[in-house]
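Workshop exercise sheet. Pairs work together: one partner reads the sequence aloud, the other fills in the structure field after running the prediction. Swap roles for the next sheet.
Pair: D.N. / O.F.
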Amino acid sequence: MQILISELAKQETDLIQPNQSYPVWSPYDAVEAADTMLRVLQDTQNQDHA
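Structure field:
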């Protein structure tokens, strides 16, 4: 069991390499996602009142 845990931990640490840059998603400037969520919310509220 310890060998499996060690192998999994090693695989996870191999995912991120030093001296590399990686993109990070941020909710800022996610205007399309916000519009979609607002539209879905409004649709569900309209269905509740119908």
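Discussion prompt: The mean pLDDT is 85. What would you look at next?
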